[in-house]
Automatic annotation (TrEMBL):
This is Type II secretion system F family protein. Residues 50-59 have a biased composition (Basic and acidic residues). It is a multi-pass membrane protein. The lineage of its organism: Bacteria, Pseudomonadati, Thermodesulfobacteriota, Desulfovibrionia, Desulfovibrionales. Residues 156-284 form the Type II secretion system protein GspF domain. It comes from the Bacteria. It is found in: Cell membrane. Residues 45-64 are annotated as: Disordered. The chain crosses the membrane at residues 6-23, 82-105, 117-137, 267-289. Pfam families: T2SSF. Keywords: Cell membrane, Membrane, Transmembrane, Transmembrane helix.
């Protein structure tokens, strides 16, 4: 039995090692090496380079030159530089755990699996374990999108109040970030990141585009497009925000009505499968028992 497990473990160890080497090689790209040498010979400080490095990586991910895994993790809210490597390591570990679980199960029930069936089960559970971290990331992206969709109208109303009170867009975003830490935690983290980018000297249009790339929600994409057009054409930002906030509030009301309309259809299946049989048993059960007793007599 151990002869079956050893080749699989060796193969997955080689797979994990090759993935880690690939990630390490991609992080030390020739372009980045040349950039480091230019920085070193030009006499610029390393602190400035370290500050610009994450923003440059995010910009590259928007242009498509960075891996899609990095951009996917940004949409899930994981911005750490080691997040892609951690995802690959988690995939390898989960695949190994799938193989080990099938092997231990086969040791507990030795006559249950044949050699071919055991190999197929190990491969199946290894693939399933490899895909579990991806499913977790996709679920987190979906939940964050839903949370942002419901939080955006409240945040936008507060931003409208701040801008109409005389604040600029940057000051309004900073103020909104302070006020919505508890009520809107997902948008709070994203707006805080954008506020820090604006304080670091990024342009308004660039910071808004980066925000839209990190969140990837259609309503926020429309808002960013309208703000960039208002900034380019010189129109009133407060009026733009007011019109968009009204339309977004109406859209949220329509979404709530749509969810309320779907509720009776969703309740129909548990009603037929669980509630109606119990009601029939409670109502007709005593009558059926009495009728059965009468026929027995």
């Amino acid at each position: 039995m151990y002869e079956i497990l050893v080749p699989v473990l060796i193969g997955f160890t080689i797979l994990v090692g090759s993935l880690l080497l690939m990630i390490h090689a991609s992080r030390n790209s020739p372009k980045e090496h040349v950039h480091n040498r230019i920085k070193r010979y030009s006499g610029e400080s390393d602190t400035e380079f370290d500050i610009e490095k994450p923003s440059r990586k995010l910009t590259e991910s928007q242009n498509g030159s960075t891996s899609s895994t990095r951009l996917k993790l940004l949409k899930a809210g994981w911005r750490a530089r080691w997040a892609p490597a951690a995802l690959w390591v988690a995939r390898g570990v989960m695949a190994l755990l799938g193989v080990l679980s099938i092997f231990l199960f086969s040791l507990s029930y030795p006559g249950l699996f044949s050699t071919r069936a055991l190999q197929l089960a190990q491969l199946l559970f290894a693939g399933l374990g490899f895909l579990i971290p991806t499913f977790i990331v996709d679920y987190r992206i979906k939940s964050r999108r839903q949370a942002i969709t419901w939080e955006l109208p409240e945040v936008l109303d507060l931003l409208v109040v701040c801008v109409e009170a005389g604040m600029g867009l940057e000051q309004g975003i900073a103020r909104v970030t302070q006020e919505m830490s508890l009520s809107c935690p997902v948008l709070h983290s994203e707006f805080k990141q954008m506020s820090l980018e604006l304080l670091a000297g990024k342009g308004r249009s660039e910071a808004l585009k980066r925000l839209a790339a990190r969140i990837d929600v259609p309503d926020l994409d429309s808002l960013v497009t309208m703000l960039i057009q208002a900034n380019t054409l010189g129109t009133s930002i407060s009026q733009t925000l007011r019109v968009f906030a009204d339309s977004l509030r109406s859209k949220r009301f329509l979404r709530a009505e749509e969810m309320a309309g779907k509720l009776p259809v969703k309740l129909l299946i548990p009603l037929i499968l669980f509630i109606f049989p119990m009601l029939l048993i409670i109502i007709l059960g005593p009558a059926i028992i009495r009728i059965a007793e009468m026929f027995q007599k």
